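Q: I'm teaching a short session on how sequence maps to structure, and I want students to see two examples side by side rather than one. Could you give me a first protein with its sequence written out and its structure tokens following it? Keep the formatting plain so it prints cleanly on a handout.
A: Of course. Example one:
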Amino acid sequence: MSFQICIRTEKSLQQLTSEIRTIFALPPFRQDSFAGEPYCQFEMLGMLILIHRADEEDRDPEVMHYPYCFDLQMAFADHELDTDHMEYTLQPYYAQLLSFHLGLDTAYHEKQKVENRWHIRYRFFGKNPNWNEAILYGEAGWQPAIIETPPTIWRTMHPVF
């Protein structure tokens, strides 16, 4: 099981990684580079989290202005878990959590199979600048803490060669 969340921020890779480490109470990260590009890596309980700068040519047009990626990969050996359901549930949760706690914009893609082709669309989250933690849900003036902008339209996924 794996998924990717795109992140838009002006923070450096080290600052972003340190803040994510604090939010999730992760162990110390290892900074390394692959093909000259730096990335930060966490390993914990069968999870591998990579935080890295995305290459512009590898980004979809919808997330061209999202320079960082948060990749989560989970390794399960022998199991009968429905990891697809876990992925589809965790991905928006982590995207909203990162937006709320770090005050940055996040995006992730959903996919569905239509006939013999995969279609994708992106969903976007950002922290609501007008959110007031003193106003409880249901009270006058309440606004959600996270704003979800309308998703992109479904499009055919480009084949990977």
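Q: Perfect. Now a second example for contrast.
A: Example two:
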Amino acid sequence: MPETQKTYQQSKLLNRYYDKIGRAAVGQGACPHFIEFRAGFGLLDECDPGDPKLLPIPPDMTEIPREFYRGLIEAEYSNGTILCKCEIPMGTVSEPTRYNMIGIYDQDTELIAVCTMLPDWVTPTEMNRAYPAVIFPIETVGGDNA
């Protein structure tokens, strides 16, 4: 039986993002900008604690469950991918806190993208840095499919 590849991180642009892009294209609003991130915990199947699995990201999410931190996002775009730098400063939490979700919010404070990963810990004595990647569904032209 073939082995399935484990997913360690996933990201999704939400329907709200695409709706805003569509409206902006016809002059009914502004393009969404990645402004803020929020860290939390959810969308994880831990039936087998030794082998947690990421659950699908619903396209209509409006908030990040068990949110514990908000910060400004640094992002760069290249070749169909936005790489986000999300820093959670030392001293943000008073006790170790488990997290596995980063929500990306726009200038209207609306959730437009979600990234999930296998769980990590934020501790009171260390800064935590996450680099979620949001991949745009861009088709390649030509390609090596001969």
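Q: What should students look for in example two?
A: Point them to this: The chain has a mean pLDDT of 92. Also worth mentioning: The first strand starts at residue 9 and ends at 13.
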